[in-house]
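Let's do one together. I've listed all components of the complex below, 1026 residues spread over three lines.
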Amino acid sequence: MSQNPFPLDKADLLKAYRTMRTIRDFEERLHVDFAKGDIPGFVHLYAGEEACATGIMMHLNDNDRIASTHRGHGHCIAKGVDVHAMMAEIYGRSTGACRGKGGSMHIADLSKGMMGANGILGAGAPLICGAALAAKVRGDRGVGITFVGDGASNQGTFLESLNLAAVWNLPVVFVVENNGYAESTAMEWAVSCDSYVDRATGFGMPGVTVDGTDFFAVYEAAGEIIRRARDGGGPALLECNMVRFYGHFEGDAQTYRAKGELEAIRASRDCLTILSERVIEAGVVSRDELQAIDREVADRIEDAVRAAKAAPLPEASDLLTDVYVAY
Amino acid sequence: MAPVVGIVANPVSARDIRRVVANATSLQIADRANILLRVLAALRACGVQDVVMMPEHGGIRSHVERGLVRARARGEDLYPAIHTVAMPVTGTAADTHRATREMRLAGVAAIVVLGGDGTHRAVAAECGAVPIAGISTGTNNAFPEHREPTITGLATGLAVTGRVPPHIAFAGNKRIDVSVNGGAVAEMALVDVALVTERYIGARALWRTENFRELYVTFADPEVIGMSAIAGLLEPVGRDESGGLMVRLAPGGSETGPASDPGTTTLLAPIAPGMMAPVSVTDWRRMPAGVPFVPKVTSGSIALDGERELSFTERDRLSLTLRDDAFHTVNVAAVMRHAGQNRLLTGTPVPVSADL
Amino acid sequence: MSRKISMKQAINEALDLEMRRDPTVIVMGEDIVGGTGAHGEDDAWGGVLGVTKGLYAKHGNRLMDTPLSESAYIGAAVGAAACGLRPVAELMFMDFMGVCFDQIFNQAAKFRYMFGGKAETPVVIRGMVGAGFRAAAQHSQMLTPLFTHIPGLKVVCPSNAYDAKGLLIQSIRDNDPVIFCEHKNLYGLECEVPAESYAIPFGEANVLRDGDDVTIVSYGLTVHRALEAATALAKDGTEAEVIDLRTLSPIDWDTIVESVERTGRLVVVDEAHPRCNLATDIAAFVGQNAFGALKAGVQMVTAPHTPVPFAPSLEDLYVPSADSIASAVRRTLSPKGARSIAA
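Okay, and this is what the predicted structure of the assembly comes out as:
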């Protein structure tokens, strides 16, 4: 084995790969099971975008908070939310992360600093300003990360939050996950200034654009930005340019895409392939080691689905609980 | 037939990590489009009727289009017709290579480039004999000179319409060719090649000086920012001189004390905007044109014009060669001086007597 | 020790006491300090009507002025609450909920349920409600029914300084999101208020006047109009019981039903618009649960189904008056208003 040229040790490289592989398998499995009609409601898959969540979350601990989006499974997994509890939640079971009351769009685990996927686009940004304010008031060096898609970046909540975070100098990182599509509408059309760095600049904070399919690019940029926020250097914006392997939601025929687009991005912009080739080529990790992780992850997802299907449904009485702490 | 001018405008330059680590400029897309509209107006004023642009999805073209629509709505006829190279957009440097190649094959008279050193490098790799007019919209811009883009547009327009003789209008430029394993990989740099010990590409930008080991520059200019400044603060070498400079660095630069190795000198260099960093210099020497240099560093990565591009190990053989007169640029200063001396913009093409 | 203070002072005192007691309490809002970043006095305003005046001197940076940016700072208050603080966010005029309602009803109100009972969001959003201030259509509404409609929110609307202090202290200590509605025309009204800290539990209505002939239920400013009406009716020999709800969610059904079972007549007074408001809600509840006790149809006295007008002459017609309440009571007493048992 050669000397490790990467800024992560081998254990962390394997952890990053395992996280990305877990997200990918989780989403691929949902894609299949949704088509079979096993899953109620709608799901929005993160497949193709794994490097972004993982490259960022590798810098965080449980005291750091994230506010996610409707496309939140990847953020949850990368933030350490239990995969079995997530799967059970998506299946609407009482063993779910939210006891079956939230579903795909509202998975949360506050003990892990995961403040929830969110069905309202752009809603996470003000919430994370509050999380960051709490960290600042307590002085515990916590940071808040909010994710927003290129589409929801047009929401007033998001733009107001950029301003508030700058004015209050909050330890917040605004991550724009630019997959090129606001549901079906092209980012190029819908974002008038065409650049998220321009938006950040307009609010008096630095913005950085990275190739969101390159784990190392995300990891390095996020590391600098998060360290800066933790040290009191204030908010910043990170734009990750990435690709969405599936539709806006499952069942989306994606007729708005150009011919051959999906095949092309899967062939040349698959972040998992890019990461594994990079670490194998550098001689730090062997293909066998990655394949062992693949098998381990596949078994875990299989087990999560099996457990979810076998888990009890919520009780009828659960309909009326958990509205208030006390009423 | 009236000359056609090519335009390569990079929407993603000035977007990297140096915004965070060094307060670098973030030139807005709208500003880049405005720069382009100024260039277009100047080209048209010189008689250029058609330009051909690289397609991109970063918004420059759509902002320019808004400018054209608004001008047309007001009945103004200020701009040349804009054509776009028919090619798919990948959003990477490959677009710049492809567009430049297509423009060269289509016979453009010059290519106006909006970007940083990286964008200019990508154009220079493919432009062949077609001259470049560079406009700085990047981070570390050692190569394109800082100047109001309208003037760059005017000079380009005057040069391509033949009103300034080519020997005045165009200047030769140096470059450094990087060859890995006998040419299996061939890269080039317009300003600098830096060999650093970190062997991953990551966020590409170069700012951790403790990892710098060897530096090769085509010109060593103490007035610019980045690697060229390190060399320029040791021994200036001009853009128009033959050859460049090679600098060897040692680990562990420190602002407070002397370098650990008694044989080294600590130099404080502006390596990125707002970022003065100590670098430990072991020695330096001239790098004559045409002579291959073999680096001593055996593993790490190669940064070209400030961006980590390639990684290499002890198994790889590297060689670096500087070439004089490798490609051409519009000599804006010379063109504008000539235009003034010959009253090219007075409406009277023939020089008139100065003592009238 | 008790002394006469205004409702405005009582609210200020409640905030002060809770900030002293609990370091996780922070207060934020537009101009709640006033003059932040400007070159004049610190604490220049203390809120647009001076409710928080003086708190900055006592608690410093725990009072935070915000940009005029309700979505962002109400959302931030909600987020901070979910992360362990007890923020009190002032939404200057409750009418501004229109630009931050998502943060209130889709976020704060739903976290606990959506997250399977694992979240607590102890945020208080306090703001001015009600007409009579010549503030026109966008600064005068009684939007309490909109908040009451949402599961997960608690809604409070005091009618006097004593209740305001005790209910606000309870709101801050409460572990659920609370919408605290302050009627701007009651700010100056004084009453005896103890100097020490006390909390008034939610869901306990206050019977302000006993009577056996008719029950009048209200909250906020119109409680005082109901009391005026009751005084006038007493001259004619009609004794009205007046119930001040104090909290709309939770609501004290027991006190209402007990009273109606005794009086057999109900008039509900609500300053909100007439459709789907507290009056209709209470009328429906009583109709369903105490129908047998009713001797007459329930009467509702509300604002009209119009925006709040500006012209003082019109606005005075807008808010339910003591006269209109008394007329409603008389309707329940007339043979025509009485329910025909034979029918």
